């Protein structure tokens, strides 16, 4: 039995004969000098919305954090385990990124679960349910709207959750202080898997708008 699924080995073979071969100098430089990305992306772990592919990023360009629903919890220095907060701390304090982008996406399973109060836990621990409770107030408000279709409610909460995460980012002192000094910028984005469209959050109004790509 192979140590990895065959399709992964084939993909690695293609990587070594293709991208790594053409960018081997860059990889050696990153190994020698370390990483210095200017942008952190907080994205969903959904396999259909990979930030590196969407933004056509090369090695070392993006510091990517992925979790269910692309959520950022509020600042909570309580001694518990906080993987998202740990990644954020490293990106801001050590890598000194200049931008943090919270990127949601269409047809998000985590958001769908948050909208369905009758969804059964996938395990006794209900880790997804606990995690998505971060946006429970918004989910309750959106799900109670009878004027929207199920698809509209889903899209609405996907975008609202991005605003929630950005608000929670500002509860971290290292983020709010640097943002106040103009050394760190926070951005929101939403990716439509079916069309490839990227919508950006207007920092003044909170609305999501299509960028002019020229």
Automatic annotation (TrEMBL):
Reactions catalysed: hydrogencarbonate + H(+) = CO2 + H2O
Keywords, comma-separated and alphabetical: Lyase, Metal-binding, Zinc
Co-factor note (free text): Binds 1 zinc ion per subunit.
Keyword Zinc on entry: yes
InterPro entries: Beta_CA_cladeB, Carbonic_anhydrase, Carbonic_anhydrase_CS, Carbonic_anhydrase_sf
Residues annotated as transmembrane: none
Keyword Metal-binding (UniProt): yes
Alphabetized GO MF terms: carbonate dehydratase activity; zinc ion binding
GO process terms (BP): carbon utilization
Pfam families for this protein: Pro_CA
Function: Reversible hydration of carbon dioxide.
Family: Belongs to the beta-class carbonic anhydrase family.
Name of this chain's protein: Carbonic anhydrase
Record organism: Mesorhizobium neociceri
